[in-house]
């Protein structure tokens, strides 16, 4: 395996690969030597419009570069769709080595205005979609005794953001799903990791610009191209990334972060019969309060300019 072709002989499925981050990942995977199943419904950002030829267009780009790829138009939100794209990979190329769960939609809205339908639709694509493709791939990976699952999470879920309860819930769920997969499939040398990407794409293009500060933030984001996500994702898919599992990374332009995972921060103990309401109020909360997590959004935590 050379540095130029670290994925030579590998087969990769990239969902939501018709544009943005998914397209960049599919193209870079092909350049690194992988055969790629390019999945995309070609729908609009909210998942409502008619399908387009987005997947086929990316396949054409890959083939012009001399790479190998096939288009897939199945829906990750449907178990049969996920099974079909995994089957297409094995029927076409004889195996499947990595899945990047990237497909997603947005229906941003403040929580008190959010409908069940808009909550359900976003969770179905992001969380159920990641489950469906991972579950379909798991049978192949177990038979091969190898495989890599790479899930796109978001700091909207890991930290928080306004007007994204559906998206945030799904993305934090993806992180928990990934950890469970990493634990359950470790005996078959299957690893599972997450990446929270910062990049200008169709998903981030929906950010509302209603102030000079927001406009400045968006302009900074436009400098973060989707191709910046690829090196980490492709390393996690390669044989050299085989010892990495159960981790959550973030990529922001030229920065790579390892994100924390929930652990106890501080504890208090009350002897005798334990706590009552009064002792919780007078002792527990004052002692714990100094370690409370602030009510922050992603931009408050990642508050410096990307480098």
From TrEMBL:
Pfam families tied to this protein: adh_short
Gene3D superfamilies: NAD(P)-binding Rossmann-like Domain
PROSITE patterns from the UniProt entry: ADH_SHORT
PANTHER family per UniProt: BLL2957 PROTEIN (PTHR45024:SF3), DEHYDROGENASES, SHORT CHAIN (PTHR45024)
Stated name of the protein: Dehydrogenase with different specificitiy
Similarity field: Belongs to the short-chain dehydrogenases/reductases (SDR) family.
Record domain Ketoreductase: where: 10-206
